[in-house]
Inverse folding.
């Protein structure tokens, strides 16, 4: 299968999921996750119509992004989806237009400071750990609707991040646990959607985006309200490096 054929199949699956959920196709942005794949693969995907690309490492992106722009002259938006060390915040603010993986107040403050200096706010999402898995990045939010401590800590962080001048907080991102049956991911996606609604109401702040859904679970994520699906393997094939 070529990247173009894979893109067609993914787009068809997205359209089918939108139809099942009575949603418009233009509500869902496809972010092609090109991490570990060479610039040439990105160029191929761009030729097949991809406009949004997701990367998870600064070092790799510093090399790949300029290479892509030597060959692709249509608009491309770069999305940072991986864990960011605070000392890399400035590089991320310069390389990427959209950051899905803001997982601490400290990181948010550094990204904001970098973008204040650049004079251009950065679109971000708050990465939320709704499933409560210990090893996972993201703001802790397991049982946020029942656990007062978790709720208050999260609300406090979100309030401070919303006040940062260099960021546009566009919504929330999560990764569902790896499960055998994709139906088991559905409650995680539904919980993120409910949290988004609750935060938007509490802070009177629109949070239009929900970044959820990957190769193994994006149809269910779309049914639960995803506006950004991050898809790697279904477009570019298996990754050889462990990521
Ligand atoms: C790698 C990655 C993806 C894409 O995963 P696939 O299973 O290849 O679709 C999506 N989101 C994040 C945060 C990732 O690190």
């Amino acid at each position: 299968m070529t990247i173009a054929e894979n893109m067609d199949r993914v787009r068809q699956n997205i359209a089918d999921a939108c139809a099942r959920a009575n949603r418009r196709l233009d509500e869902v942005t496809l972010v092609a996750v090109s991490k570990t794949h060479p610039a040439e693969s990105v160029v191929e995907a761009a030729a097949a119509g991809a406009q949004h690309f997701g990367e998870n490492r600064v070092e790799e992106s510093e090399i790949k992004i300029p290479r892509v722009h030597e060959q692709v002259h249509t608009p491309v938006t770069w999305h940072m989806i991986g864990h960011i060390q605070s000392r890399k915040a400035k590089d991320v603010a310069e390389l990427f237009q959209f950051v899905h993986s803001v997982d601490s107040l400290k990181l948010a403050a550094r990204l904001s400071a970098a973008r204040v200096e650049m004079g251009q706010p950065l679109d971000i999402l708050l990465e939320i750990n709704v499933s409560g898995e210990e090893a996972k990045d993201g703001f802790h939010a397991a049982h946020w609707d029942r656990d007062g401590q978790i709720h208050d800590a999260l609300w406090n962080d979100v309030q401070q991040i919303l006040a940062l001048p260099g960021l546009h907080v566009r919504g929330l991102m999560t990764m569902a646990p790896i499960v055998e049956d994709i139906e088991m991911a559905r409650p995680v996606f539904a919980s993120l959607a409910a949290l988004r609604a609750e935060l938007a109401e509490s802070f009177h702040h629109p949070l239009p985006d929900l970044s959820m859904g990957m190769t193994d679970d994006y149809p269910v994520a779309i049914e639960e309200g995803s506006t950004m699906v991050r898809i790697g393997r279904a477009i570019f094939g298996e990754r050889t490096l462990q990521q």
